[in-house]
Amino acid sequence: MAGNNIARAGATGGVVERRSIDYIPLTERHGKAWHQGPFWLTGGFMLPSLLIGFLGPSLGLGLVWSLVAVVCGMGFGTLFMALHANQGPRLGLPQMIQSRAQFGSRGAIFPLLMAVFIYVGYNVFQMVLAGDAVAMFLSGGRVWYLVFSVVAVVIAVVGHDLLHTVQRYFSYLIIVIFAILTVAAVVRFPLSGATPVSSGFTFSAFLAQFAAAGGYQISYSIYVSDYTRYLPQDLPEGKLIGWTFLGGFTGAAWLACLGSLIASYVPGPNALTELYHIGDGIFPGFGVVAVLATLPALIGTSGVNAYGAMLSGMTIVDGIRRVNPTLRVRITGVVFVGVVGALISVTMPADYMSSFEEFIMIMVNLLVPWTAVNLVDFYLVRHGRYAIADISDPDGGVYGRWAWRGLTAYFGGFLAMIPFLSLGFYTGPMTTALGGADIAFIVGLLVSGGLYLLLSGKIRNNPRTPGGQPSGVPALHTLG
């Protein structure tokens, strides 16, 4: 009961979380399934989501078709992301350390490294966007990157419960302001006398918008269990997955659809400038409110990124040399991640941002086979039965250091993706044949997931009894 009080105090009394990559005992579990809704709504309600919606109109896709592609793509990608939510309360572990069951304690280091790069990379983008938003009205330049980085790090240091509280209450503010902005945007463009920039349909443009939206949402898969692992183990699976899907889909799809609307009427739009004009069209001064309303999600989610990078980084080190997951180690990890992200934001020349964005897209593609293998293992191969003590063992326990099935499926899936990739320095032959649409993430999901299922027949037919459990861990839950 004392542990439970400590955990709850993290959200209400400012007590710093003490857990990190270790198992969350049932006595410390708390929270409700619906909390995932506002948490992921805020996580998806960021300027990068708005930019996703610009793609379809920029390729000549009409507004209606752009909206359909955004909604379908976001729904497809969010489904895979939401399925990871069930793993947190069942296993009581962060998301990426669970990869040891599929790849081994050493083999999991590769997807873990990709996750760290994505966390830090997203933080760089978000700090730059937050700084640009403030720079529209205040001086200070890149000093704002440092200010916002410090705020994000403080939130992440306090930990899990404060991150949930911040994201939840930010969501209420965001919904109110952007509901007003969305109505204003719908009124503004059709009544402005302008004609849409594009009004046609091509299958390649539709596919490109669908794939961009879907791939964007799948990249959130590396986060999910980090923020469900404190939930009670007996939460209904459908309820938890449903709330995660609703929040993740609503936040990202709403903003991306708004982006498609804007880009259908404004050639080469600037996200912050257009939000300012829409807001000021309501009444003078509301444009400032509209732009600054983007800051809570950017800063709060930067704290989420710093927290996730700390968990993944600790897991990497632990796979090489055992880590004692103390409070000091956790805080050191969060601060280190925050410092690295802030330094990159401050020192990176503006003309390198497009190259850096390309680098992050490569990392996202590298994680698509991971999510396929991880979900197939959990739902179709082991049916939720894992040896928690062995996952937490740097030597891998029954899962070993190198798990050939997962690694084969992972790299097989990525090799299959290569002909379908579209990057600044490379365009695959299948992408060219599809008119430029990058559907690599769909190929990666199908090939890696299918290959892992095929290779894991022996495990499915002759499941090994899980090894020992940490003190206080009940009999493992089996999915119904």
TrEMBL record:
This protein's GO CC annotations = plasma membrane
Q: Name one Pfam family in it.
A: Transp_cyt_pur
Q: What is its main location?
A: membrane
**Keyword set includes Oxidoreductase:** no
Where in the cell is the protein located? Answer: Membrane
Q: Which family is this sequence assigned to?
A: Belongs to the purine-cytosine permease (2.A.39) family.
Name this polypeptide is given: Cytosine/purine, uracil, thiamine, allantoin family permease
Source species of the chain? Amycolatopsis methanolica 239
Upper lineage ranks?
Bacteria, Bacillati, Actinomycetota, Actinomycetes, Pseudonocardiales
